Putative ABC transport system ATP-binding protein (Tepidibacillus fermentans), 231 residues
Amino acid sequence: MLRLNNINKVYGMGDTEFYALKNIDVHVKEGDFVAIMGPSGSGKSTLMNILGCLDKPTSGEYFIGEHEVSQLSDDALASIRNQYLGFIFQNYNLLPTLTAVENVELPLIYRGLSRSERRERAVEALTKVGLQERLYHRPSELSGGQQQRVAIARAIAGNPTVLLADEPTGNLDSRSELEILAIFQDLNRQGMTILIVTHDEVVAEHCRRIIHVKDGEIMTNKLIQEELRKD
Ligand code: ADP
Ligand code: ADP
């Protein structure tokens, strides 16, 4: 599904050249559920930005399905993002003046769906995350966990192939964190491929695989045995 071959990301030039990522090889299979962990400054955001086609590597190959995307133009990358990827952020990034259902509908405008199709998809996505009773609430009327569920609904409404989440539970209390995790696990069981950057061991232990990054390199990439996985 996603394959990084010998990816390097270099910042600066000449004497100040700095490798934010070094010889990264990652293969994410369809249906995988991956946690990316590592200390601050280790390269997690850089890696996620490349995986999310928000940034380009300095060298190496990146395949999304059959497409080699590492050197595509910004427009072509935007189209790949739109077609394959859903994003979830730590701060939800919801528009405060729009209701939950309007927030979820918004990105669907760029998919050429009619008004009624957009509404139908948005309600379906919000129902999947358990917010069918909160369609017309604005973000300020929702808890942090509920706002993140709206953001997940927004990310899945376009039927992406892969969900990329950067510290999705970083601002949440433990109870909301577990609710969000349960939603990710549910989506993963339904076949969604998910990558999460997290500092949280609890979150990571619910995934299928943990990749540890340090100083721009992959330290470990290990499968969590099913019997140890916290389902
Ligand atoms: P993490 O997400 O793990 O905290 P980052 O990917 O944000 O790490 O950063 C990895 C390293 O690359 C850090 O040392 C950071 O300072 C550096 N870095 C990130 N972005 C840039 C940039 N645009 N220019 C220069 N250095 C950068
Ligand atoms: P995180 O919360 O993931 O650790 P950071 O605070 O390290 O994120 O970085 C936030 C953003 O700022 C990153 O996406 C990165 O591109 C940029 N950045 C980080 N370090 C530098 C740097 N030394 N020079 C320029 N930009 C940087």
